[in-house]
Amino acid sequence: MKYETVIGLEVHAELSTKTKIFCSCKNEFGGEPNTRCCPVCTGMPGTLPVLNKAVVDYAIKAGLATNCSITKYGKQDRKNYFYPDLPKAYQISQFDLPLCQNGYIDINVNDETRRIGITRIHIEEDAGKLIHDDYSNESMADYNRCGVPLIEIVSEPDLRSPEEARVYLETLKSILEYTEVSDCKMQEGSLRCDVNVSLRPVGQKEFGTRCEMKNVNSFRAAVRAMEYEQKRQAEILDNGGVIVQETRRWDDVRGESIPMRSKEDAQDYRYFPEPDLVPIVVSDEWVEQIKNTIPEMPEQRKARYIGEYGLPEYDAFILTSSKKMADFFDATVSEGAKPKTASNWLMGDISKILNDKELEPADIPFTPAQLAKMIALIDKGTISNSAAKKVLDAMFAEPADPEALVEKLGLAQVSDEGAILQMVNDVLAQNPQSIVDYKAGKDRAMGFLVGQVMRVSKGKANPQMINKLLKEALDKA
Amino acid sequence: MKITKEEVLHVAKLARLNLTETETESLINDMGNIIGFADKLNELNTDEVLPTAHAIPMQNAFRADEVKESFPREEILKNAPDSDGDGFLIPKVVE
After folding, report:
1. Do residue B79 and residue A42 have CB atoms under 8 angstroms apart?
2. A142, A149, A341, A405: most buried, per Cβ within 10 A?
3. What does pTM read for this prediction?
4. Residues of B with CB below 8 A from A26's CB?
5. Interval A114-125: pLDDT, tens
6. B73 and A32 in contact by Cβ < 8 A?
7. Chain A touched by B55 (CB under 8 Å)
8. Are B73 and B35 in contact (CB under 8 A)?
9. Does the beta carbon of A18 lie under 8 angstroms from any beta carbon of chain B?
10. CA A432 → CA A428, A429, A442, distances in Å?
11. Domains of chain B listed by start with CATH number
């Protein structure tokens, strides 16, 4: 049978606040275990949480950037469960009055715009980390992450393929990055997602039974988990079976998911209003204030690159999908570089080097002004494109003025017509056979001669000029 | 309202309590009384009343996003049932 896949995603993003959600401990990744803890975040009896206002600001900002309506009267609730990464034995979250509701984001899949609904965005606290590896008969709890503020962004079941889900995640990530709500560092777990997948026969209105997958640590893993689940459910349905609603754990190494919780252990979180925290009342002025802090978003920026700079849609999309990359591009252009040239370097060689070194655009060691200067050196004919690549490598190794690097590496191109003509004539005098070959119509002879001149110039002669002068000389010969 | 034995055992399980047969029996009665007491509210017409999550008229108690010193690790770990100096040692959690 033919099935339609229905996917909904729950994305958890750690907020870029300075402190934790309910205490003044520093919100930071890593560090020695249990060095950013206090009685509040370790759940000591008798302590009282006090909500960090910046958490509400960021959540509202994320809501506005995803077209949500902001809840005027919100509250926080207790979600009860026993697990040692959560010392209070409950997580403070939001149940029926989340801060943001009923939003959407537009995503672009195969040149088509799809509107994906956002059910809700709520605030909650992160749990600690359990370490098993170095401990044989015990586990060790590190509560540094306990109380780190999170928003959970729940989508409507509007996604119809793993590919759409991937684009949704990329788009959401860039929105959170642009608004600086989260640093979105996947490798540090700043952005995590749970995936809900169900199938239904094509044409059927009702949704099928869904399975939830946890432990999905990268977008690539999310796509693999969804593809796996799609196939698993189709096989069950094709064999006349029924899908059991369950939570499964994705094992990215084995490329499979396994059921996590048995039915007898069905979740029963017994949510109730958090008695230690008072309601959150959001005024129109407050919302207006936050609205004013929202920067140019990726879609607007993309439109500007296409309209103002004449960049192709694809280039504009790639550049704007990372805010840091787009900022770098803008700065390079305002330093005088031609937009298309700057874009080519950033999308091409620079992205490649970043990928190879596993760096992010934020880690580019040189300044936009230095890149603009390097591009100017190419435009002026001081260096060739291939020499520029060497300059770029050098700039990554040790950022310095490109002009000084050209000097240091001896990469300046020779564009002196007289000097090159001298080399051309010398090469021709030494290779009479090639002239004969050229006259006989052998294309290879031209290539050989260009190579010879280049060799004589130690790779520094302007290649266009060699071509031009060589051709003139051969035609006269 | 009547509370069944299964409901008492379910709640006990969620709270990680092991009850004896006698305790279970007496809790069936106690919990039934508590729920019955709360059920009395259903006698009132609350159609026009918004659900109340908090009884005190207070809102927006916030803290500024300013870092303060955390506790020294030794202090924090003093409350650990068992510790290796780095963290809280707990019975092995099998995932």
Report:
1. yes
2. A149
3. 0.80
4. 67, 70
5. 999 999 999 999
6. yes
7. no
8. no
9. yes
10. 6, 6, 14
11. 5-43 (1.10.20.60)
